[in-house]
Amino acid sequence: MSYLLSKAKSDNVDGHIQNITPESANWDYVGFEVVELTDGQKLTQESNELELCVVIVGGKANAKSGEQQWSDIGDRKGPFERTPPYAIFVGRNQAFEIEAIGNLELAICKAPAKTDRPARLITPAQLSYISRGHGTNERLVCNIVFGEDDADSLLVVEVITPDGNWSSYPPHKHDTDNGETESQLEETYYHRINPSQGFAFQRVYTDDRSIDETMSVEDKDVVMVPKGYHPVGAPHGYELYYLNVMAGPDRRWVFNNDPDHDWIMEYKK
Predict the structure, then answer these.
(1) How far apart are CA 147 and CA 23, in angstroms?
(2) So what EC number does this one have (predicted)?
(3) Which distant-in-sequence residues (6+ apart) come within 8 Å of 7 by Cβ?
């Protein structure tokens, strides 16, 4: 199995099925967890020197951070309903608590924070899906934490790729801090597949092929992208969702396509 692939775990008593840290990933910025809670179960965490974005992938919850409380949040049963999620941004040196109403799937996105920012609720009314690409390269993209003033480090996006289509395509990279021409960002992909017994493929590779890994990803797997290009393909019959977390030394998303495949941008068939 590839060292860039983290399989979902089901034997964790606190509900964690994924727990990626900078130490476990051997990088500097991105942390990522997935927690599955049952009715009435609670999760409490401290942000410490990090900022967090807690995405309700599916289910409902009551939540609080400091003096702020939010009740009965979460509109969708799962990520394939094509409605944007509820999410909670938590700044550094704050705590949050979430209580499940029924079954709850949470993704906790983490990155270093430089300033103090208040906790805030992000609602579906503030978000939208946009179509990107065309033909078998079309997918739906929802920017959850992406605006210029949203965070210090975090970039959080979810994507739905129809069956038979490609995503993160043409292959692109953002691994070099190079002024306005490219930014350096680590990235995780949390994959969900519909129906859940399916699979998808993701390749991570660099120009010099010092990294060249092609992975069969299953439902609830995480792929880590420390650098390089990272296209994804969804087989016929299986719809693909993924949640991206990106962070690096600067909060800029500037990428470059693989020059061998950049011609695809003009391909209209």
Answers:
(1) 28
(2) 5.3.1.30
(3) 1, 218, 221
Distance separating alpha carbons of residues 164 and 239, to the nearest angstrom = 8
User: Residue 232 maps to which CATH number?
Assistant: 2.60.120.10
131 phi/psi in degrees, rounded to 5: -85, 135
Domain span including residue 184? 5-266
**Burial group, residue 31, by CB count within 10 angstroms (0-12, 13-18, 19+):** buried
Report d(CA 255, CA 227) in Å as an integer: 11
Peptide linkage before 195 cis (omega within 30 of 0): yes
- CA atoms of 99 and 230, how far apart (whole Å): 35
CA pair distance 239, 192, nearest whole angstrom: 8
Please give the chain's pLDDT, 269 residues, in tens: 899 999 999 866 689 999 999 999 999 999 999 999 999 999 999 999 999 999 999 999 999 998 999 999 999 999 999 999 999 999 999 999 999 999 999 999 999 999 999 999 999 999 999 999 999 999 999 999 998 878 999 999 999 999 999 999 999 999 999 988 999 999 999 999 999 999 999 999 999 999 999 999 999 999 999 999 999 999 999 999 999 999 999 999 999 999 999 999 887 66
In one letter, which amino acid is 157?
Answer: V
- Can you give the length of the chain in residues? 269
Distance CA 224, CA 96 (A): 26
The 10 Å Cβ neighbour count of residue 83 is 13
Q: How far apart are CA 231 and CA 242, in angstroms?
A: 12
Q: Which residue has the tokens 């927690």?
A: 35
Number of structural domains, the chain? 1
